[in-house]
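Supplementary notes for students who missed Thursday's class. We covered one full example, reproduced here. Read the sequence, then the structure, then the short commentary at the end.
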Amino acid sequence: MSAPPVPSLPDRPSLDQLKRQARELQTAFTDDEVAARARVVAQLPGRTNQPSLSLADAQCVIAREVGYATWARLKSHIEWAHQTPEDRLQAAVTTVNPVGYADVETLPDYSDKLEALGHMLDQDPALARGRFGERQWTLLHQAAWGNGLEIGDKLIGAGADPHAQAAGGATPLAVALHFGWGKQPLAQRLAEYGPIPDNLRTAAGLGRIDRVRQIIDDGDRLPTSAGDDREVWHLTYDFPERPLLTDHQGLVDDAFCCAARNNQLDVAAYLIDQGAQVNRVTYVGTALHWAAFLGRIAAVRFLLERGADLEAQDDEFHGTPLAWSHIFRIRETASFLIDQGAECSLPLLCAYGPISKIRQELSAATDVDEADFQGDTALIHAIRERREDVVKLLLSSGADPDRTDGDRPSPREEANQIGVSSILFD
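Structure (token representation):
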């Protein structure tokens, strides 16, 4: 018994029409129509002996007849076909990297997103070179932000330009180095296409110490004054609202910061020997700010051993390295900075500090419901970090589980939202 031919999917298929077809197939199968049963045999052999067909199975048959393994994938294709080019690009952006700074390959649905991106590029190859947002990034810039090697390779295979410049000049490689991925495979892969820009900062971020030495020894594209017109920083950042340092000392200091945030510590040590200033604010924060912010614990240790200031403030938000570490909730670096003596409020101490130090702080008549700059109390921080022992200590010290400040949730609401309410009541 062979299945009759089924028309291919039109360019702009109707989901409602396909749903009707699935219901018709369901009815025809139940009525024991030969053609209907033949279609089911062809797509779902295990369903042929049953007296009726579920709607989900009928939809699966429809989807497989037009080349999709599941109804969900067919539905996604149809929704995609009806989107504007702008909406398609935005959907691709979210698929490439839905969270911003993160190692996207560790996300639980990464394989699904990788497969979805492949379908998107097959249906609309122009996406690989599309631009989005104020900074005019490409999808490859977005992938570099999230350290997505397989996604990056898929985009390049579909025609993405590894040297594409964003509105401010940044290449995907520059983005990868800005966010500290210099040792990771995607940054190294991008560098294989040519380390653009080829300057001191790029060499430092990639750990290419021989190139760093060459640039400094030869003075290659390294100016001696701010008036030098060579484009040393061409294609480096795409944040033109914050001009970069262009004098010789500034370039060395910024390259040092870039080496540190990328855990290129041999290069960082060499640049210190060349006069790099460990506590220089080159771009918003010091090297310690950036290493803490990005969770580069080896760099944090290295910098503290070489005199980095635990209490240095950035030049925009006046935050310390510990505060920067808290932005991404990098527990390892935050806890280490506290252990090294970084000053911190009770809320951050209850998020990352040792319980012995928390007890000491509470015994010193500290306000147990003290809130941080966002209005979150120590109890909320302990709940978010799932520190049950700290939660119990705070409650026994009089912390209010229903305290709230403006639009911020109370500790009880926070516990309910993240599914750990038991630590408040058990």
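Commentary. The mean pLDDT is 88. The CA atoms of residues 256 and 268 lie 5 Å apart. If anything here is unclear, bring it to office hours.
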